[in-house]
Amino acid sequence: MANRFARTAIFASLSLVALAVPPPVHPQEVDWERGARGAVRNVLNNHYTRQMTSDVRSVACLAQRGDTCFGGDHWDRACMRVVACRTPAAVRQFIAELQRLGTRSPRDPLAVAHSVYGLVRLGQMGPAVMIAEQCRAADWWCDLVLGMAHHRSGGSALADSHYRSALLRGDPELTCLLTDITNLVEGRDAASYRRLPCPSQARSAFEERFWWLSDPFLTRPGNDRWTEHVTRRIELVLDGQLGARGGDDRRSVDAVTRRGHPDSWMQRMRQIDFWKSVAAARYRFTPASLAGDGVQALRYELESGRWDEGYTPLEYGPVFEVRGQVARFLEGDSLFLAAAADLDGAPFDPRDIRFAATEGATGYRARRGGTPGSQSPTFTLAVPQTAMLVAIEAFGERGDAARMREGVLPLAANGVAVSDVLVLDPRLAELPASREEAVRSMHPQTWIGNANELVVYWEIYGLRTDETVEITVALQSGGAGLVTRIMRTLGGQTTPPATTVSWTEPVSGPVHAMAMTVDVDRLEQGDYDLNIDIRGPDGSTASTVRRVRLGRR
Known about the structure:
Strand content: 15-25%
Oligomer: single chain
Number of domains: 3
Distance between the termini: 47 Å
Shape: elongated
Number of helices: 13
């Protein structure tokens, strides 16, 4: 892909000579690799080679403090260090010339694309969409241009639809260029991805999984992080056709693919640092974990650093990550999920709370809309026994958004098996006797604050009524056993303090419900693992671990 971008001259100098009008192309063909010529080149040269209107110098421009960097047009590198470099009249004239270029040449693919690209750079979203809709070049190319216009206008769902249509029918080489995620994957994922030829089913499957996990909100139509990626890539292609000036890394494929076009800069000695502001690349929606490690290792670091991949949505935000809890139980051949999120951790009032469980970008999905009647509602759903991504997503009246998501794997269903440990509200008056009662009392997360007891519920599967099971429980921190007093449902017995606690009891049937409290009053704040091991009468074993945090929020 780097060679292809080199051939399209991303770092070539901008020619000041207007070249001949390009020859017509077949309706379904677009010569997207050649440089911009004729009217396109003239319009751009007329604007970008004009004399600046001010020589007032600056040593920094930061979008986060309200500065308009690059004169409001990220392609106008000549505006660097100059205040008010374009007069309002000059900008208005440029906008008018771009509109004329697009409306007079609807069958010229590059004229339409560059007029739309120039208009969105200058914030003229309405005219950009109008010109894109009038495009009469190759259908797939017009879909690409429409996707760019809609995404930059805050219509990512429409952009998603147009982009998918374009990539299915367009030039395969360009499709490979636009969908390439080499700059976003790391470690073993990067090595695996680079070995995949394009086009190929294996590479498409890798990308589909990557974007499934990177979708900012599963319950919103489309995937705006994916449309942002394709938009950045098509803009790089258009930059290459125009020819980018300067030898610095502002226009580098890696930097623009990962963070978008620079929105700020700061002078440091004789060098210029870019992307100094995080306003345009605040969130890292791609996983911080490796896709090759599976959904069970799924991990996000939403607040991106300067060198992380980053993106700030136009359609919603700010975005908050909240804690939650997901527990799996067996229900016949299906997996029964119970999920909750601590939306009290989000600094806004959720008006719309939704639940999603999906096994892939186009796989099984369940949604619940509206307000379920609680600030931190619990959702339950029976799903197939497969790896899934589970999420609770909430939205406020002003666009604020919060999410909890977790990857889950199937539960073992052969022989003796055990469910996840469900952490319950520590204020319960009595222990639950069934899953239904336990789920109603589900804690919104596994962080226990000021309570002196940890209350949990789990289930044992695969044994017949009255068969004896051995149960071993240990609460550990740093490898040290810390179980203190335990009270169980059956008989209400209380155990004395011990490193681990073991007992045997007959099971009540194929699903044996268990609940207990653990005294944590004397434990220090921190993370602890509650380990439960099960041994059946034939020696078969099963185990489960629940990480809990004790102490103040």
